[in-house]
Amino acid sequence: MLIRHTLKLFNKRICAAHEPYISSVFRPIVGYAPNVALPLRYHEKLLWRKLFDRNPLFVTFSDKLATKEYMRQRAPGLKVPETLWNGQSIADAPDSLFREKVFFKCNHGCAFNYYWDGTKGNFDEAQMLTKRWLRTLHGADAYEWAYSGVAPTIYAERLIGTRDEGVIDINIRCADGEPIVASLIRHNKSPRKQAGYYDIEGRRLFPSQGPNPAAGFGELPADFPVPGVFHQAVGHARELSRGVDYARFDFMTDARELFGGEITVYPASGHSKATTGEEFGIDKLVNEHWDIGKSWFINTPQHGWKNFYRFLLRSALRHCRA
Asked: Which residues are bridge partners to 154 per DSSP?
């Protein structure tokens, strides 16, 4: 088939243009050589998204402050953690802020968190760290282009629950208004972190993929109770995801209320081991629902050779679905 042959040539050029990332990062971690030009597997689709899909919403979702506003508009009944202050230096924050228990965060990446306990925080340490965050271009080495469109800002967020106890993360992967699978995490961002996967009815799924020893966390107990707000989170994720071909929608609960968190368009940066053979894993489950034919790239006219490639890819995907 002429289209398939042309896409093979495109794939060779694309992979050559993005060496050594593909050979030194993607293949060793994921476990196979990708067909980026015609992505049909989960990790291929994530890599393709990084290289081609410039959906403007991805910049919004990569900005934690803009994501809060998106959630307020799309899900008015959903609370978001209160932002107490934002700026370019914590030296400009009001003195009253430092008498509260807050998280200092930066809006343009992950793992930018500093806990201030309201009594004996180290200001010099926090100042040095937050300044470094502002200078960091998050995701550049992994082709997570959307972060480059975010203006870095430091902000202070009111604590939900306590720092170490009582807060459960509910992360729901959705494809254009269709919730696919959820994960629950407790003790997140701590050595005691535990996780597990669930279907959208709250039933436990493939527990063998719950723990991740390489990442240093374990599996939730088999009898771990699903939070009472779980189905509420699923409903909000359904509304927030409409028009988005695929993303992970994150929530938090303190066992009393549900709060919106982040929207992740590059879950784990696509750097997870692919399931193979007949095993029914999380990546295979998501992939069955994720149709990149609904992506911004394919549904938006492009320029030059990218528009020709868009036409070829759209035709090939239609043939694959037939």
From this structure: 87, 106
CA 148 from centroid of its chain's CA atoms: 15
For the residues 22-40, what does the mean pLDDT come to?
94
| b/e per residue 184-196 (b: at least 16 CB within 10 A) | bbbbbeeeebbbb
Q: Which residues contact 287 (CB under 8 A, 6 or more apart)?
A: 41, 42, 45
Structure confidence by residue, pLDDT tens digits, 185-227:
998 877 888 999 999 999 998 765 544 444 557 889 888 889 9
Has domain 168-264 been given CATH number 3.30.470?
A: yes
d(CA 286, CA 103): 32
How many CB atoms within 10 Å of residue 207? Answer: 13
User: How far is the CA of 64 from the CAs of 60, 113, 193, 244, 295, in angstroms?
Assistant: 8, 12, 22, 17, 22
Look up residue 257 and give its two tokens: 């209320």
